[in-house]
């Protein structure tokens, strides 16, 4: 059920590359395979019922969006531009092959098929010069869908096992208007058995404050990394239960965003 839901969501977000170049390009069989009647029978095989030539498209997925291209061979730079990355040199492109992630160079050519099996992930490169990137902890492995969701944020994230508690930490999480600071670290506690067991609440450090001065209701605290984190005590109800076959970190982040908006009257 989860796969069907996600696939429908991706189809609704599908983008297409402009086909004008492909339509204007000469057909490779033009002037060949001419029958006795003077018609190009190869072209006829690729024509629709209305007489227009059908264009074959090649499907692939970048992060969580499915795209279509009239061209089967694309460079890493092409793929990043298609994904809306205006400065491809500031991103790293990875292709998922089996259980491994293969780097794709900007000028490296990748062949995509017409069945949508090729999957790519974009990662922003650290633009800070003269500073060594902080090490990223991976104390345990998340399900593939969660890893893709977190990678798609473009933020640094970690899995940390501390004092018997599994946590996911998203560094520099952007917070909607109405709060200060504008970015903070977001932490989720994963109970044993996740994803069958639910994710409950979420935590920020530095703590958030409303810019209108009003207090944030129902707060708790949790000590982690030697710091006291601000916990938001928000729980699912019988009308909104955890669905193990659907819910994951991605849907829980949607709950976080909804409650951030609701707290300041924007939902």
TrEMBL record:
Domain of life, per lineage: Bacteria
Ranges of residues in domain Multi-ubiquitin: 58-123
Compositional bias per record (Basic and acidic residues), positions renumbered to this chain: 30-51
Signal peptide as annotated in the record: none
Residue ranges, annotated region (Disordered): 22-51
Listed InterPro entries: Multi-ubiquitin_dom, UBQ-conjugat_E2_E
Pfam family, one: Prok-E2_E
The protein, known as: Multi-ubiquitin domain-containing protein
Source organism of the structure: Methylorubrum extorquens (strain DSM 6343 / CIP 106787 / DM4)
Origin organism lineage: Bacteria, Pseudomonadati, Pseudomonadota, Alphaproteobacteria, Hyphomicrobiales
């Amino acid at each position: 059920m989860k796969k069907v839901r996600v696939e429908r969501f991706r189809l609704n977000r599908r983008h297409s590359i402009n086909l004008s170049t492909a339509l204007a390009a000469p057909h490779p069989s033009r002037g060949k395979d001419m029958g006795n009647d003077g018609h190009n029978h190869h072209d006829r095989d690729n024509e629709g019922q209305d007489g227009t030539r059908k264009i074959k498209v090649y499907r692939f997925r970048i992060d969580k969006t499915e795209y279509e291209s009239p061209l089967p061979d694309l460079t890493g730079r092409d793929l990043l531009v298609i994904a809306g990355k205006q400065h491809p040199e500031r991103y790293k492109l990875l292709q998922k092959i089996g259980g491994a992630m293969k780097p794709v160079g900007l000028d490296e050519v990748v062949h995509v098929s017409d069945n949508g099996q090729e999957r790519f992930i974009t990662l922003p490169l650290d633009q800070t010069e003269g500073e060594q990137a902080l090490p990223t902890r991976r104390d345990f492995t998340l399900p593939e869908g969660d890893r893709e969701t977190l990678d798609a944020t473009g933020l640094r994230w970690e899995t940390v096992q501390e004092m018997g508690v599994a946590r996911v930490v998203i560094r520099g999480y952007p917070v909607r208007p109405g709060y200060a600071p504008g970015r903070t670290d977001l932490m989720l506690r994963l109970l044993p058995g996740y994803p069958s067991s639910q994710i409950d609440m979420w935590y920020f450090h530095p703590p958030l404050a409303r810019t209108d001065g009003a207090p944030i209701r129902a707060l708790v605290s949790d000590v982690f990394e030697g710091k006291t984190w601000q916990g938001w005590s928000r729980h699912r109800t019988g009308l909104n239960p955890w669905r193990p076959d659907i819910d994951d970190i991605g849907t829980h982040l949607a709950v976080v965003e909804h409650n951030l908006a609701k707290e300041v009257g924007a939902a």
